[in-house]
C-alpha cells in the first residue's frame, strides 16, 4: 500500500479582534495555506461553490467569495464563480433560473467582483467526458465544461449533513456538484426508490415533487379507516425508466 502524506489543515478563529475583520482573516488564511505558490497569471480560475436555493440560508456568504476572488485577482488570475445545474426540481435546474437564484442570494458581479458562469450550460448538457481510471460504476465522469475549461479550480465549500452519506464537503462539492445533469443522473442511478404499496395512503405528494413524470396512480387498494369503514386508495407506482434517482419523492 502506497504511503500517503497527511494533509495540512489550516483554520482560524473567526472572532474579530482589533482591526482585522473576518474577511481579512480569510485572506490571510488562504495565503498561509499556500495560495501564493500557485501560478495564477492570466489564468481562468473557477471558484466552485453552492449558490443556495431560494429561501435557503445554508450557503456561504457572498463576502467570502469576494475575498477569495480578490486574492486571485491580486495574484494575476481571472476568477469566476461556478456550479452546475441540479437534477431535482428547484431554482437551479437550468442556467437562467440558476443565475437568477445566485443573484437573488447575493452573488452578483458587483458584490463578488467576478461573474457567475453555470458550468454545464443552459440545460445542463454542456459537459466534458473525463475517463475514470479503474472506475467500477462510472467509466467516464460527465463534468461541466466550464470547470474543465478552467486552468485552476478552487473549491469553496460549506459542509452539510446528509441522511445517507453523513457529511458532505469538498469531495461532494466537486464530485457531485461538478457533474452535469447527466453526470448527476449516473451518480444517482443505483438509488431509485420503490413504493411500499401496503403503506401508501394516496396523498400524491411524491407525484407533485417529481420533475420527470415517473410517478403514477393506476393501481388501487382498499384501506381500513379508524372507524372500521374502508375506502379505495390510488397507490403510487414509480416508473424506473423515467425515474432519475434524485430522491426528492422520499
Describe it:
The chain is α/β, with parallel strands linked by helices. The protein folds into two domains: 22-190, LarA, N-terminal domain (Rossmann fold, 3-Layer(aba) Sandwich); 192-238, no CATH class. The chain is 25% helix and 22% strand. It has a four-stranded parallel beta sheet. A two-stranded antiparallel ribbon has the order 4-5. A two-stranded antiparallel sheet has the order 7-8. Helix 1 packs across helix 2. It starts with 21 loop residues before the first helix and ends in a 12-residue tail after the last strand.
Furnish the topology, listing elements before pairings.
Elements: H1 22-32, E1 44-48, H2 62-74, E2 78-83, H3 95-104, H4 109-112, E3 115-118, E4 127-131, E5 140-144, H5 145-149, E6 152-155, E7 160-162, E8 166-168, H6 170-175, H7 181-188, H8 205-209, E9 215-224, E10 230-238
Parallel strand pairs: 1-2, 1-6, 2-3
Antiparallel strand pairs: 4-5, 7-8, 9-10
Amino acid at each position: 500500500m502506497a504511503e500517503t502524506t497527511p494533509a495540512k489543515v489550516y483554520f482560524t478563529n473567526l472572532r474579530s479582534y482589533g482591526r482585522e475583520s473576518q474577511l481579512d482573516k480569510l485572506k490571510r488564511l488562504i495565503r498561509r495555506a499556500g495560495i501564493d505558490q500557485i501560478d495564477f497569471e492570466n489564468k481562468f480560475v473557477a471558484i466552485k461553490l453552492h449558490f443556495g436555493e431560494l429561501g435557503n440560508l445554508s450557503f456561504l456568504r457572498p463576502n467570502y467569495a469576494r475575498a477569495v476572488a480578490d486574492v486571485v485577482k491580486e495574484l494575476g488570475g481571472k476568477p469566476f464563480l461556478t456550479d452546475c445545474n441540479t437534477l431535482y426540481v428547484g431554482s437551479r435546474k437550468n442556467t437562467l433560473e440558476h443565475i437568477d437564484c445566485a443573484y437573488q442570494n447575493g452573488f452578483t458581479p458587483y458584490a463578488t467582483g467576478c461573474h457567475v458562469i453555470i458550468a454545464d450550460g443552459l440545460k445542463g448538457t454542456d459537459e466534458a467526458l473525463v475517463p475514470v481510471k479503474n472506475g467500477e460504476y462510472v467509466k467516464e465522469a460527465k463534468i461541466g465544461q466550464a470547470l474543465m475549461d478552467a486552468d485552476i479550480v478552487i473549491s469553496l465549500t460549506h459542509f452539510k449533513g446528509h441522511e445517507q452519506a453523513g457529511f458532505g464537503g469538498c469531495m461532494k462539492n466537486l464530485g457531485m456538484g461538478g457533474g452535469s445533469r447527466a453526470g448527476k443522473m449516473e451518480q444517482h442511478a443505483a438509488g431509485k426508490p420503490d413504493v411500499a404499496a401496503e403503506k401508501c395512503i394516496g396523498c400524491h405528494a411524491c407525484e407533485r415533487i417529481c420533475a420527470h413524470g415517473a410517478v403514477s396512480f393506476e393501481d388501487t387498494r382498499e384501506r381500513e379507516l379508524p372507524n372500521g369503514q374502508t375506502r379505495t386508495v390510488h397507490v403510487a407506482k414509480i416508473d424506473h425508466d423515467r425515474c432519475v434517482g434524485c430522491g426528492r419523492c422520499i
